[in-house]
Amino acid sequence: MNWINKIIKYIGFSIIPIGILLFYKQYFLSGEPFKRAVVGTVAALIGMIPEGLVLLTSVVLAVSVMRLAYHKALVQELYSIETLARVDTLCLDKTGTITEGIMQVDAILSLSERTKKDTENAIAALVHAVNDENPTANAIRGLGLATPAWECTHKVAFSSARKWSGATFRSEGSYLLGAGEFILKDDFSKISALVEEHSALGQRVLLLAHSPDPIQGSELPANIEPVALILLSDKIRKNAKQTLSFFADQGVDIKVISGDNPVTVANIAKKAGLKNADNVIDASLLLTKDDLKAAAEKYTVFGRVTPQQKLNLVKVLKDQGHTVAMTGDGVNDVLALKESDCSIAMASGSDASKTVSQVVLLDSDFASMPRIVNEGRRSINNLQRSASLFLVKAIFSAIIAVLFIFVNCGYPFQPIQFTLINAVTIGIPSFILALEPNRERIQGSFMSNVMRKSLPGALTMSTNMLFLVLIACSLKFSHEQISTMAVSVTGYTGLLTLFKVCIPFNIKHAVLFWLMTGIFVVAMLFFKPFFALVDLTLPMLLILVPLLLAATSLMALYYHMIEKVIMKKAK
C-alpha cells in the first residue's frame, strides 16, 4: 500500500510538467492542429496513469477479508494481511494458542501437617476473597470446594509482574497463591526438586503458602511457610501439532513466550510437536537488554516472562531484522501485541487484547493461522503479478511522453487506442490473475518484484516505439499509419508481458492468454474505425514484422539484464 501510494504520488507530480511540455512542443513547435495536439497530450497522460491499480488492490484485500471472515478470522486492518504473509518469526503465548486456555486441577499435594480439609478451606477462602477471573482461578473453582466464613481484611489480586495473589484473614493469617520461586524467594530450594519433578511432566505447579503476618500493600509478608502444591495442566489443542508443523515447513521461526514455569512450558510445547522445545530459558535470569538480545536468537521457549519482557523481546526481534507476529489473549500481552508487526488476538481473550490487535480469531482457534498466512500470500503474490501489468504501460507511457518532447514527430496514440491495449493486456487479465489461488512464499520487496516483471516489457515497448517512429517518420508515413503500427507493436509487447506473467501455465492461464490475444486481433481486423486504425499495407508490414520479431528478442534480453543486475545487488 505504501508503494502504490508512492507510485501515484510520483506519477501525479510528473504528469503536469510532461503534459505542458508535450502540448507546447506539438502545438507551438511542430505545428500540429490544436485538436490533434490536445488528443495526443491526453493520450500520453492517460497512459501514464495506472488506472485500476488502486481499485484492484482494494478489491483483492476486500475479498481476502471476506474469505477470512468465512474461516472465523476478523481482519481489523487491511495491511495486516500482507504483514502476516511476510512474517518470519511468530511469538506464541502458550495459553489459548498451543493449549485451549482451559486448565484443570490434577492434584493437591500437602507440604505441611495440615489436614486435607484445612488446606481446601484455605484455597477456597483465598480464591473467593481475591475473586480473580483467570483460567487458574476458574480451574480451582471447578473443584467445587465449600467456602468457609473467614473475614478478609486485605487482598492482593494476581499480577503477571508479581506472579502471586494473596489475602489476609482476621483470625487465620495470610494465604498466598502463585509461583513458588516468587513467594519463597531464597527458601524455594526446599521444594524446588518436587516442583521441577512435576513441571517436567508438563504440569503447572502453584504454591499455596501461609504467613501469620498481614500483607502490607502489595508486599509479601514475613515468615512464609509452604502449605501445599496445586498441580494443574493445560489441555493441548488437537490441531496444535499440525499447525506448528505448517509454520516449521514454511520456515517461520516460532518463539513460545509464557509467564509460567519454563520447564512446564517447554514440556507442553514438546507435547504439541514444537521443534527445539528443549531449547528453553527462564526469562527472570535475563537481567539486561544484552542478555535478552542474545537469548532472542538462541532460545525457542521462554518461561517466567513479564509483560515488559514480552514487549522488549518483540522489539529485539524486530531490531534483528525479523518480521514479527504476536498472538495473545490477556491484558499482559497488550504491550507486545501493539509493538509487533502483526498482532493476533483470540476472541475468548480480554477486550484490551482484541482492541489493539489487527486480526481476531473469532473461534479462538490457532488452527486458523495457516489459512490467514495462505490468504495473505495469495493476495500479495497475485497483486505483485497484476501490478506489473499496470506498471508496464505506466513506465512505457512516461518514457515515450518524454521522448516525444524531443522527437520531431506527433504523438502516435489516441486515448481510445489505449482503451483497447489496457483491456486485453492489463484490465481483464489483472482481475482474473489477482483472485486465483497462490500459496508461494513471498520473497523480496513488493516494488522490486513488480519492477523485475514490468521493466523488461516497458523497455521493450519504448525501444521498439523509438525505432518505429524514427523509421516511419523518415519514410513519410501518415499519422494514422504510424498510430496503427504503434498500437500493433505495443499490444504485441503487452501480450508478451502477459505471457511471462502467466507462467507457470495451466489451463486457466492458457485460456486467458489466448482469449486476450484473440480479442486484440479481432479488434485490429474488424473494429478499425472505432479504434482509429487503418488497414495494414505492405510497406507497413515490412516495418512492423521485423519490429515484432525484435520485440521477442529484446524482451528476453532485458529480462536477462535486469535479473543479472538484481543478482549482483543481492550478492
The amount of helix comes to 55-70%
Rg from Cα: 34 Å
**How much of the sequence is in beta strands?**
5-15%
Task: Measure the end-to-end span.
Answer: 28 Å
Output the strand order for the largest sheet: 1-14-13-12-2-9-11-10
Count every helix, treating DSSP H or I runs of 4 or more residues as helices. 21
CATH superfamily of the largest domain: Calcium-transporting ATPase, transmembrane domain
Structural domain tally: 3
Major beta sheet summary: 8 strands, mixed
Second CATH tier, the architecture of the largest domain: Up-down Bundle
Low-confidence stretches: none
Can you count the beta strands? 14
Which features does this protein show?
571 residues; alpha/beta; Calcium-transporting ATPase, transmembrane domain; Rossmann fold; Calcium-transporting ATPase, cytoplasmic domain N; 3 domains; 6-stranded antiparallel β-sheet; 21 helices; 14% strand; rod-shaped
Verbal overview:
This protein has 571 residues and is an alpha/beta fold. It folds into three domains: 2-66 and 373-570, Calcium-transporting ATPase, transmembrane domain; 86-99 and 238-365, Rossmann fold (3-Layer(aba) Sandwich); 102-236, Calcium-transporting ATPase, cytoplasmic domain N, CATH 3.40.1110. Helix content is 57%, strand content 14%. The protein has helices spanning 2-29, 34-48, 53-70, 80-85, 94-98, 116-130, 135-141, 180-183, 192-199, 240-249, 262-271, 289-298, 307-319, 334-339, 351-356, 369-406, 415-434, 446-474, 479-502, 507-526, 538-570, and strands at 73-75, 89-93, 99-110, 152-156, 164-169, 173-178, 204-211, 225-236, 253-257, 280-282, 301-303, 324-328, 342-346, 359-361. The chain has an eight-stranded mixed beta sheet, sandwiched between helices. A six-stranded antiparallel beta sheet has the order 3-8-7-6-5-4, with helices on both faces. Strand 13 (342-346), helix 15 (351-356) and strand 14 (359-361) form a beta-alpha-beta unit. The longest helix is centred in the C-terminal third of the chain and has 38 residues, at 369-406. The chain is rod-shaped, with a radius of gyration of 34 Å. The relative contact order is 0.11. The model has no long low-confidence stretch (mean pLDDT 87).
